[in-house]
Amino acid sequence: MKKNLESLEFDKKETNNSITYTAQTIPAMKREGMSPSFEKISPKLMARIPNFHYKGFDASISNWKDMGSWVDNNLLSGRDELSPQTIAKAKALVLGVDDRS
Predict the structure, then answer these.
(1) Partner residues linked to 22 by β-bridges
(2) What is the pTM of this model?
(3) Which of 11, 40, 53, 54 is a Cys-bridge partner for 36, taking CB atoms 3.0 to 4.6 Å apart?
(4) Would you give the end-to-end CA distance of the chain in angstroms?
(5) How many angstroms separate the CA atoms of 70 and 6, rounded?
(6) What is the three-state SS of 12-33?
């Protein structure tokens, strides 16, 4: 996504697997009271990778719904279940403790 680039002169070069933006003179911006936040007025390029591999999982994401589904199905799936070893260790830590509060 491109934002606030209208007043800048830049070169854009595209190849089969990359896009490069080059700007030579981006003017400094002085903070002024009552002005919009820097985030809203500064030049910005935002990129995302639609296909990637993370921690053993392949992803193909084109929107936020896809992202949420991928995280739920791959990264979070089974994370709410404790192994029998962990359950045994937790029980051993509180063995003999009689405090229900």
Answers:
(1) 11
(2) 0.48
(3) 40
(4) 53
(5) 35
(6) EEECCCCEEEEECCCCCCCCCC
